[in-house]
Amino acid sequence: MSVAAELATRWAGRAGTIAFVLVALALGRVVGDQVPSPIDSYARPHEVVASQGRPVQLRAATITVDGVTVSRSFQTSSSLYESPGIFVLADVTFTPTLEDSALGHVEIVDRQGRSFTVTRTGGNTCPLTAPGLPTRCSVVLELPPDALPGATLRLGTDGTDTAYQDLAVVDLGLDAQDAQLAADAEPLEPREPLLEEGG
Amino acid sequence: MEGNPGPGEVRPSALRRLLEASVTWVLARPRNAGYAVVVAALLLTVPFGGLAAAPEDEPEAVTAGTTVRAAPWELTLERAVWGPELGGDFLEQEGVQHVLVLGTLRSTAGTTLSASELGSSVRIRDLPGAADAFGTPLEDGLLPWDSLWTLEPATVSLRAVAPGLTYDVGLHLTTTEQTVPAEIQVELYSKTYRESSLEDTMLWTDERRTAVVTVPTRRSGPVYLSSWEVLP
Amino acid sequence: MTGWWRRNRWALLALPFVLLLAAGAGSYRVWNFWNPYELTDPVAGRSGEPVRFTHTLEDDRGSYTVDLTVTAADPVPADHFTDQEGMMHYFPRSEGSRVWRTDLTVQADPASPLTGCQVRLVDGLGRATLYRTSPLGGEASLGLPGSPCVPPGAPGPSPDFGFGLEEPAATRPATYTVPVYVRTAQDFVPESIEIWWETPWHLSIDVDADAEADAGEEG
Q: How far apart, in whole angstroms, are the C-alpha atoms of residue C103 and residue C193?
């Protein structure tokens, strides 16, 4: 065989190997992207569905949504807020189980899958609480009127990243009529767990 | 005779010799073929400007009051007011003039966005001495993270922006100069929602200048109210 | 059925050993990821008796040693605290809760850095509540020190974490008493108080809480 032919054969062999490796890598990537990641399934939050007034037992705390009210405005001891949409206030009773904990995740999800979290200072009055101590507090979020029907409140104790968390999921029971009620309602007043007076 | 090509013989041109040498070199080692591909790719880019910086898209110049879609926001900037004291939380401060750029803000994202997310979407131009609420100069006009306020019924800061709501807002900054020009330029940047290249998180990033809004300014006295003035 | 058991008898015999081996192979996670971050290594004591605790830690300048002798009093309910200026402040009330006060008497070399300790109360059900000022509420949120083991007016030297903190002017006394206030559930009766600088080493002092004591009395 001539030198040129031998070189050509070697070259073609190497090129074939390179092409094979590249195609295998690309194929692996495509297949890997299609297969659902196992982490996604076990990192998904564990949802405990409950209705209003029913205590939900989570790993770190027991949470009860006592009631839900709506209004265009909401006030704290220091501020008055007005929303371009509707403020939704949920009264929450929150009792940590074994260790101090706080209501770290507060979210409303509407039918379209939009996620609403606290937008205003004072929108979550649930403080870091000692185990066994029932704290009566409130969360306030704002929604556009079209988000009210079918919206659910999702509460958790371990911060805004919900991976591996267990969440209390409570139907707010709101509908289009509540948007009208909100327009004439008095400003919402969140419950404050600590009462500022001498004992 | 040497040096004189006979009939039927073609003198190999310099180009041809170069070509032959190149082919031999490329075939000599597989590695050389790789180099050849890279060089060819580089040569192919020459007609498109090669390694020269790509020209930036000219941002759209818009007048005040026009709604600009700069993902994840829809921003309408209308006017700006300024003065040593604007009322509410914007009280007199040593050596600074308050500036409030007024308009409406709507988020087109599917989740509630922190007010600090607006920071990298807005840059203030042509405002000498531009500074944040405490008088610290702005970094390249970048809006500070705590500058988002709602003004009715009282001045309160807006910590986050819920999806689907149109807020009447004031973007608060200050200037260390004595006066503010009759017009200031506000650059708006669009961002893209994508996975971070460093971690497994999603973020709004890759700012692209989308529009420059010319906002008229007006000197004002204390016109806003603070929370304790409106509480029953 | 017996055929299946017979066929797999060797695998069945091996199964307990394989399970043990698998548990053993994963057990390093307990030591690497759980044990060092929990309070697993106590120095035990009881209230009213001095307990010595020494613990060598790292800061930017190298290592330093926390060395102190603590005598914990028995916890009593409290309804107020006294700030550095001698002003008395009542704790805000909260339905279903009470505040416990535990006095710690500390003997230590004034040159030993003791700032940055954490303290918690543990009850008979294993419930634990950390000393934190915000749940106490009101004036206590800002008026009480973030870390309770040193007198707030004369905390003594701090470890150097590169913050460039100045050494405080006042020298820490060699013996002092600091109150530790913790808001707990009404039915929480502390059985021990735990003090630490870095997990897993800690002081664990058994206490005999006096729930009937008058909350208004100064300890």
A: 11
Strand residues in chain B grouped as ranges (E): 60-63, 67-70, 73-83, 97-107, 113-114, 122-125, 130-131, 148-150, 156-157, 160-161, 166-175, 183-195, 202-219
DSSP at C74:
P
DSSP H helical ranges for A68-162: none
**Residues B72-92: what's their mean pLDDT?**
94
Distances (CA, A) of B25 to A182, B13, B21, B31: 80, 18, 6, 10
- pLDDT score, position C213: 75
Residue type, position C165, single letter: L
Taking residue B199's Cβ as centre, other Cβ atoms within 10 Å add up to: 8
Of the residues B227, B228, B230, the best mutation for testing chain A's interface (the one with the most A CB atoms within 10 Å of its CB) is B227
CA distance, residue B108 to nearest chain A CA (Å) = 10
Q: pTM for the full model?
A: 0.80
A125 and chain C in contact, CB less than 8 A: no
Contact C136, C91 (CB under 8 A): yes
For domain A45-184, give its CATH number from 2.60.40.10, 2.60.40.1240, 3.40.50.1100, 2.40.260.10: 2.60.40.1240
Per residue in B130-178, pLDDT (tens digit) is 999 888 999 888 998 889 999 988 899 999 999 999 999 999 999 999 9
User: What does the pLDDT read at residue A140?
Assistant: 97
> Could you give the domains of chain B?
14-48 (no CATH), 60-222 (2.60.40)
C121, two tokens: 């109360």
- Residue A43's pLDDT is 83
Domains and CATH numbers, chain C: 1-37 (no CATH), 41-206 (2.60.40.1240)
CA A35 – CA B43 distance, rounded (Å): 39
Tens digits of per-residue pLDDT, A74-100?
A: 998 888 999 999 999 999 999 999 999
How far is the C-alpha of C18 from the C-alpha of C24, rounded, in Å?
10
What angle do helix axes B14-28 and A3-34 make, rounded to 10 degrees? 60
Q: Are B193 and B72 in contact (CB under 8 A)?
A: yes
CB atoms near residue C87 (< 10 Å): 10
Q: Do B227 and A8 touch (CB under 8 A)?
A: no
Separation in Å, CA C5 to CA C8, C9, C14, C19? 5, 6, 13, 19
CA nearest to A136 within chain C: C95
For residue C32, give the 3-state DSSP assignment.
Answer: helix
